[in-house]
Design a protein that fits this description.
This protein is of the alpha/beta class. The two termini are 19 Å apart. Strands 2-3-1-4-5 form a five-stranded parallel β-sheet, sandwiched between helices. It has seven helices and five strands; from the N terminus they run βαβααβαβααβα. α1 crosses α7 and α3 crosses α4. The chain is globular, with a radius of gyration of 15 Å. The structure holds adenosine-5'-triphosphate and magnesium ion. The site of magnesium ion has 4 residues, from α1.
Length: 177
C-alpha cells in the first residue's frame, strides 16, 4: 500500500491561494510524494468560466458555486482509498465551506501566501495559461485568509516547493486527523 492510502483514513489536502501562488506546483509535488490522487481545480471550470477569466473578467460567486461543487465531489471521490490532494484557489471562507459540503471527506487547507509583486512576476513569466496577470488584484481583494477556527495551515509561498512540501507532510501527520 502506498503512503497515505488507508481507506479508514480518508481525507484531503487542498492547496489554496491566489493565482501564481504555486498551488498546482505544490499539489503535484505532494501527490507525488504521497503516491495519491491529484485533483486540479482549474480543470473543473465550465467553458464559460474559462472564457470569462481569459477575457480578464473576474468570476463572481454565481460562477463559482457549481465549479466548487464539482471540485468538492471530485476530491471526495479521489480520496476513496485514503488521502487525496487538490489545488483550488478557495479564496473565501464560504468557498471553503462549499468545497467541504460537496466533499465527503475532511478537508485540510494549505494557504500559499506571499507578496503581490512576487505573484505578479510569476504570472508574467508564465505566458501559456488562461489566467491573465491583470486578475491578480481582484483575487487578492477577494482572498479571505483562513480564520483560527478553520482547519488550515498558512505557508510563505516564496519558499521553495520542496520546503513547502516538507512542511505540509510534517503538519498532516496530526493536523488532518
Ligand atoms: N515555490 C515556488 N517558488 C518559485 N516559483 C514557483 C513556486 N511555485 C510555483 N512557482 C512558479 O510560479 C508560477 C505559478 O505557479 P503555479 O502554476 O503552480 O500557480 P497556481 O497557484 O497554480 O496558479 P493558478 O491559480 O493561476 O493556476 C509557475 O511558473 C511556477 O513554476
Ligand atoms: Mg494552478
Amino acid at each position: 500500500m502506498q503512503a497515505g492510502q488507508d481507506s479508514n483514513d480518508r481525507r484531503a489536502i487542498v492547496v489554496m491561494g491566489v493565482s501564481g501562488s504555486g498551488k498546482s506546483t505544490l499539489a503535484a509535488l505532494l501527490a507525488d510524494r504521497l503516491g495519491c490522487p491529484l485533483i486540479e481545480g482549474d480543470e473543473f471550470h465550465s467553458a464559460a468560466n474559462v472564457a470569462k477569466m481569459a477575457a480578464g473578467h473576474p468570476l463572481d460567486d454565481a460562477d463559482r458555486w457549481p465549479w466548487l461543487d464539482r471540485v468538492g465531489q471530485a476530491v471526495g471521490a479521489a480520496a476513496q482509498r485514503g488521502i487525496a490532494v487538490a489545488a483550488c484557489s478557495a479564496l473565501k471562507r464560504r468557498y471553503r465551506e462549499r468545497l467541504q459540503a460537496a466533499s465527503d471527506v475532511p478537508l485540510f487547507f494549505v494557504l500559499l501566501d506571499t507578496e503581490a509583486d512576487e505573484l505578479a512576476r510569476r504570472l508574467t513569466e508564465r505566458a501559456a495559461h488562461y489566467m491573465p496577470a491583470s486578475l491578480l488584484d481582484s483575487q487578492l481583494a477577494t482572498l479571505e485568509r483562513p480564520a483560527p477556527g478553520e482547519r488550515a495551515l498558512t505557508l510563505d509561498a516564496a519558499r521553495t516547493p520542496d520546503a513547502l512540501c516538507a512542511d505540509v507532510l510534517a503538519a498532516i501527520g496530526t493536523a488532518t486527523r
